[in-house]
Design a protein that fits this description.
With 240 residues, the chain is α/β, with parallel strands linked by helices. The protein has one domain: Vaccinia Virus protein VP39 (Rossmann fold). Helices cover 41% and strands 21% of the residues. The protein contains 9 helices and 7 strands. The radius of gyration is 18 Å and the shape is globular. The N and C termini lie far apart (40 Å). The mean pLDDT is 91. The structure holds S-adenosylmethionine. The site of S-adenosylmethionine has 17 residues, from strand 2.
Length: 240
């Protein structure tokens, strides 16, 4: 994978999805209450606070939360961003049983010991009618990445693993957890469909980076492209 290629485009797509989500959960005359689980240094929390939300950020890392506070102050939204240090697997204790309009779980379900327990805790923090935004890595993309890197034996091992590792975290597992919890997956987008595969050195032609960003955005919700993306974003609603 090529970490720098298309990073702005990937963030841009997720930011657009989150801004739209924020509008659908914001009730007239109220400030939207958001929870960012494993929110780290505020990649999403700070822009969402700038967009007008109150954001509680849970993270286990004191360093990440220090960076978050610094970024929030720089953006003039320190009063809207509330860092809480702790383990997302004890979420109910950390937030005192509160529920939120929009709950983010980006890149956190890969880091917990029990995905099912963590997912249940995160889902329980979504108010009826509210949304959960889940960003999860896609095991299918690893097969392609290994093969393109000239590692067919490792690609084959990853491919076999797709059939055997029932508990492996990925979009299919999240979809199953949502269905079991009575949550509705409203949208599903592949993030970085092509930009994760293209080396930056192949994008020197004028306009190539912009074109790749548009290609990624247009492919994000279309089969079969969305299924091979390195990460998948799911927008999930708790029925009212
Ligand atoms: C891959 S980063 C994702 C950061 C951010 N959500 C994003 O998408 O840019 C994972 C974050 O989860 C935090 N983390 C890992 N395990 C955690 C846990 N059990 N409870 C709370 N935070 C955790 C890490 O400190 C890190 O900031």
């Amino acid at each position: 994978m090529h970490a720098d290629t298309g990073r702005a485009g990937r963030l841009g797509l997720i930011s657009r999805l989150l801004t739209d989500a924020l509008h659908t959960v914001t009730e007239p005359g109220r400030t939207a209450q958001l929870l960012d689980c494993g929110g780290g240094s505020g990649t999403y929390a700070v822009p969402l606070a700038v967009a007008g939300a109150n954001v509680t950020v849970i993270d286990i890392s004191a360093d990440a939360l220090a960076t978050l506070s610094h970024r929030a102050a720089e953006a003039g939204v320190a009063h809207q961003v509330h860092p809480v240090q702790g383990d997302v697997e004890a979420l109910a204790d950390l937030v005192g049983g509160r529920s939120f309009d929009l709950v983010l779980a980006h890149g956190i379900l890969e880091a917990v010991d029990s995905v099912a327990a963590a997912f249940a805790g995160i889902a329980a923090a979504v108010r009826p009618g509210g949304l959960m935004s889940v960003l999860v890595s896609n095991p299918a993309a690893l097969v392609i990445a290994r093969a393109l890197a000239g590692e067919p034996a490792l690609a084959l091992a990853e491919l076999t693993e797709l059939d055997t590792a029932e508990s492996r975290i990925g979009p299919a597992a999240i979809q199953q957890l949502c269905t079991a919890a009575g949550l509705l997956v409203e949208a599903r987008h592949g993030i970085g469909v092509f930009s994760d595969l293209v080396p930056g050195s192949a994008l020197d032609a004028p306009g190539a980076r912009d074109a790749l960003e548009r290609l990624d955005a247009d492919a994000a919700a279309r089969a079969p492209f969305a299924e091979i993306a390195g990460r998948v974003h799911l927008l999930v609603r708790r029925p009212a």
